[in-house]
Amino acid sequence: MIQQLLQAYWPDWTGDTVEGPSGWNNTTRFIYNSQRRSVMRIYNTHRDKSRIEFEFAVLDSLQSMSLSFKIPTPIPATLGEKAVQIQDGSDRYACLFAYIEGARPEEDDIQAAYSFGEKTGELVHALAKCSVEEEPVYPPYFELLQSYPSCSKAFILDFCKQPPIEFQEQRAALLTLQEAYIDICSRLDSIKSLPQQLVHGDLNFSNLLVDSENMNTVTALLDFEFCTRDVRAMEPAVVISGFLGIRDEREAIRQFCEGFASTVRLSKEEIIAIPVLMRLRLVDVFLHFFSRYREGTDEFHILKEQVNMLANGFKSLEQSQEWMEDLLFQTLL
Q1: 74-86: string of b/e by CB count within 10 Å (b at 16+)?
Q2: In the CATH scheme, what architecture does the domain 2-98 have?
Q3: Which residues are bridge partners to 39 per DSSP?
Q4: Angle at 216 between CA 212 and CA 204, to 5 degrees
Q5: Cβ atoms within 10 A of the Cβ of 214, count?
Q6: Rounded CA gap, 10 and 4, in Å?
Q7: Has UniProt tagged this entry with the keyword Chaperone (predicted)?
Q8: Hey, what's the torsion of the CAs at 261, 266, 271, 276, to 10 degrees?
Q9: d(Cα 123, Cα 136) in Å, to the nearest integer?
Q10: What does the domain layout of the chain look like in residue ranges?
Q11: What is the model's pTM?
């Protein structure tokens, strides 16, 4: 199928195909030939071209700025379109991007934590200046209650309190998530009052590249699919939530925050909100996978794995909160 897509829409870019590190939402393939390389992405979980068009509008605006790191560059197809619909009955879309040199860091490797913070701060600064006519398609995190129509509040609470037999081993973990969900729902209105702007919304180890010969340096930030307008402090909160539970957690967060603060400083209100926003991120991930389970996209064992991981994330956050709040004020204010 990949070769058929290339020959039909990008005939100059045909070549050997190698499977890439595909995520939950997309399929990735690397295309190699003797002259150049590219990356194909197939969007698996939606059929909405407007989502892709907004992502590309943001990338186009960022391309006009002088950034110290690379971002994805779409390659237009023969007729000029940047996203083409796959003719296999699935109505999915595919896009081609220029290949970016670099390596993916290991999830517990904190060598690039300071550089990750620098590049995240630089991106926040750049996104604040982006000129994009299209309206964001993805909702902000604080619209949690409207973002997952298949997961009503009543259904989620009932599921966590009385889980199906497949989830009996996750009873304690689900009660942890239920408590976090109730707490976050009560805080959504206050979160809206924080400063807002465009944010990437999904920065983590899987969405960055580092220099292959200098693993301390981030060279690219990837996957702007979920870019939207949200509270500014959500950007560092998402990254920091990804450090929970890793080896050298405290040092990773300290280095990231120092790098971030070299470009962007946050207000007292934003800093106070970061642990809350981290909990919001974890709850959102739970609802994302819960929704995929309800809609039949994932089997139950995928949700079980996520429930266990997210419950552990909440426990790590609770154990780390006191020193984390001090660290955030020391570095970000």
Answers
A1: bbebeeeebbbeb
A2: 2-Layer Sandwich (3.30)
A3: 30, 97
A4: 90
A5: 11
A6: 10
A7: no
A8: -100
A9: 17
A10: 2-98, 113-332
A11: 0.94
